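#struct-queue
[09:14] JT: dropping the first one here, sequence first, then the structure tokens:
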Amino acid sequence: MQFIDLKTQYQLLAPAIQARLEAVFQHGQFIMGPEVIALETQLASFIGVRHCIGMSSGTDALLAALLALEIGRGDEVITTPFTFIATAEVIALIGARPIFVDIDPVTYNLDPAQIADAITGRTRAIMPVALYGQCADMETINAIAAQHHLAVIEDAAQSLGASRYGRRSGGLAQIGCTSFFPSKPLGGYGDGGACFTDDDQLAERLREVRNHGQERRYYHPRLGINGRLDTLQAAILLEKLALFPAEIAARARIGARYTSLLQQRGAASTADGINAPVLTPALATGNTSVYAQYTIQVDNRDAVAAQLQQQGIPTAVHYPLPLNEQPVFQIGMGDDNTPISAAIAQRVLSLPLHPYLSEDDQDQIVAAVAAATGLKSSR
């Protein structure tokens, strides 16, 4: 059993992807070729924004967003400690300071109720993450930002295809950023990413930043990066995008089935507000999820993971150590009090989920989780 099955998807798309790649080899525009422009156009339409700017990775998309907003040394950016390191890494790389605010215990996303107390005279932006495939409370976060004249960067690396009150993730803030890492809901066959915005001026800055700050050939009004999306990756993503709506629906169906099966065996939901041997994820009102990860909470996580591994069922931990406890952030940056993140990091366990997961495999996984955690042995 595979944690994420990329082979089945490729078998469905192989002839079309090979034709796309051959077209790139023939025209030879490997940097900023026509496939990049086509992908940006289609993705902007899909998200519902005016501009999509392809990037070399999700990390570079976040970095480019900060540079385009001219955030830098001495500034502060409020974000979550319960995410992949790239979110805070880019803040530190430009000389700013990540300010870690704790998470909501139901959705695992940045808790808006704690943001205001973290705002200082140095705060320039808020960077919420749509963790595990569902959006944060962007309406409240945007309102707080507007009140304090702050920018908002939506880290949608795990949530492309998800929505909040009918609006697509990636289009819920001043700038949205996503990743096309192969294991993401919409993934390429290498690194890639994108920024989304409705702001024409910001879009132009982002295009300059991704190309060494270049406004026109050999004229550089700002510092930038080599952040361009490869044409070959864009060609692959164009074919994958055609399948994406069906895969979004499959992810939602499989995630909901996991929850139903586990709760039938006695698991509780994070929304129940109780401690239980197994907690299933809960969707906030107005949210859909692409379940970039289907993540449960369990007691004795290492023992549970080991028992599943013995049965050939892979698992993963996203994420075992909050960012403010990482060594790199503990000098002058890791003094934030985030007890919910610390507690949940000890219990989360991600189960296999991808659009091609069979019901038989899912039944086997649920039975193994039940056996390892003391849930009911049958429905």
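[09:21] JT: and here's the second one, same format:
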Amino acid sequence: MNTFPDLSPSAPRRGPRAAVKALIAVTAVAAVAVGGAWGAGLGPFAGESGPDPEAVAEARAFLADWAAGRLPAAAARTTRPDRAEEVLSSFTSGLDIDRPVLTAGRPVEDEESGGHAVTVPYTARMPVTGLGTWTYGAELPLRERDGEWKVDWRLSLVHPRLSGTEKFRLEREEAEPVRALDRAGRALSADAHPSLGPVLAQLARGRDGGGPRGAVLLVD
């Protein structure tokens, strides 16, 4: 399209202001056309919309079902429902896990898959009764099959170190309270030694001053 005013002899001559108006009008039309192309996915950023939202939604639904204890529902979202339900049930068995908190991270699309594979990292926070929270990170691989997204089942998606020969076990121990003794081996008390009262109280409250301790161990 010609963006300049028609200056041929047969056309009436327009003044400078009219020419500016015409140029602005043409520019506005061009902007609308470009905007429409971008909206239709034909602009320079076409194809850069990120992973399929349905894949991300499936990953979040899997984590939500797992966290809520709906293990059959979580397993049904995988490519191996029978195996997935078995592993998810046994993974926390004996670990005294309360209710896990599973938080999805930023999804990443596998460029070589042509948009048919997505990885969603997540953070697992597993509250161990009476001890604290066991925290780790893992990844959920998802694949599109026959137009439907599924979690591509493998042991490492439950925990990166989980394998067919190794599993996790909780070991607890009850720490003995710290005892302060004098050089003769007699117990020191705040009643007998008031000046040591603050120190003895701090020892009793300290991390090693008694109470439950433990660890989640990877065993063969």
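[09:30] RK: nice, looked through the second one.
[09:31] RK: Confidence is low (pLDDT under 50) at residues 1-13, 22-47.
[09:31] JT: good to know. Helices lie at 16-39, 53-67, 71-76, 81-91, 197-205.
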